[in-house]
Amino acid sequence: MIVKNQTVISHFILRGLPIPPEHEHLFYALFLAMYLTTILGNLLIIILILLDSHLHTPMYFFLSNLSFSDFCFASVTMPKLLQNMQSQDPFISYAGCLTQMYFFIFFGNMENFLLVVMAYDRYVAICSPLHYTSTMSPKLCVCMVVLSWVLNMLNSMLHTLLLSRLSFCKDNVIQHFFCDTSALLKLACSDIFINELVIFILAGPIILIPFSLIIVSYVQIVCSILKVSSARVIHKVFSTCGSHLSVVSLFYGAIIGLYLCPSTNKSTVKETVMAMMYTVVTPMMNPFIYSLRNRDMKEALLRVLRKKKICL
User: Fold this and answer.
1) For 70-84, 149-163, 226-240, which range has the lowest pLDDT when averaged over its residues?
2) What is the spatial distance between Cα 271 and Cα 35, in angstroms, rounded to a whole number?
3) Residue 201: HSE in the Cβ half-sphere, 13 Å Cα cutoff
4) What is the spatial distance between Cα 253 and Cα 122, in angstroms, rounded to a whole number?
5) DSSP state, 91?
6) Which residues are within 8 A (CB) of 50 and not within 5 positions of it... i.e. 6 or more apart?
């Protein structure tokens, strides 16, 4: 029995962003600056956490993983977008498209899982401070992060394998700036029922359950601090959780705007803009949020700079 390759086309064409030709150079410079800011900002956070022993705590262990995930998440789509804008070569190979989709799903969901873990860390620190050290043990922290990586790896592989079995016969123009799952399914000329069923079964819980757990954690935190009469303690709690809440608002706000509030017309402009929000803007803003709003990060940077001066 001969099994034929169902993929007739060998490459896709990424439509890219709806930018007028006369403004492409301006937007190219803007996106390049945003990407470099994302890379350098998240690298700085990772390096500070590695070098400063004061930051070797569960909270900053999770933050270093979040920064690494943001670093990779932005690198999945931005280099190809910048290349296409500069060279006017919108082609991406079939294998390259599936690879991009795999890592996009993986690191996108990884941030989702890490935000939940960080919310749990804040919940234990505020609601059970006396048991924080024993509860958030190094072993538990590593296990939660490893579990997040494994679950996301399996989920991404499942979606990629299911999409690889589809046929793409005629239209190979992707109405997006990266290989998004929904955009690829629209181009398939074979039955996509299984793909849509798996997305319906898995995608909802993967987004809604973590978001619900974050909400529950912060409801418990608010209820706990309302019992405290000290304004200083309340201010300290909100300053501690403020950075995480800002990141959660950015990330889930973009996803809810994209998937739960569909556009009333057929234009893809809104979808493209919202996708830019959580693939480019959120990873870029995270380092600013955690460095500018976080006293520990500022002090760690000063300590590292002082050590460097002493060594010189």
Assistant:
1) 226-240
2) 20
3) 9
4) 21
5) E
6) 64
Q: pLDDT digit string (tens) for 16-30?
A: 888 888 888 999 999
Query: Residue ranges of the alpha helices (H) in the chain?
Result: 24-51, 58-87, 94-127, 132-135, 138-164, 181-187, 193-226, 231-255, 269-276, 282-292, 295-311
Q: How far apart are CA 296 and CA 218, in angstroms?
A: 22
| Contact (Cβ atoms closer than 8 angstroms) between residue 95 and residue 174 | no
Other CB atoms within 10 A of residue 212 CB: 12
End-to-end CA distance of the chain: 71
Using one digit for the tens of pLDDT, what is the confidence trace for 165-190?
998 887 889 988 999 888 899 899 88
Answer whether residue 255 shows pLDDT above 80: no
Count of other CB atoms within 10 angstroms of residue 244: 24
What contacts 266, CB < 8 A, 6 or more positions away? none
What 3-state class would DSSP assign to 14?
strand
Distance CA 218, CA 245 (A): 9
Of the two residues 58 and 299, the one the predictor is more confident about is 58
Return the structure tokens found at 144.
Answer: 């939660």
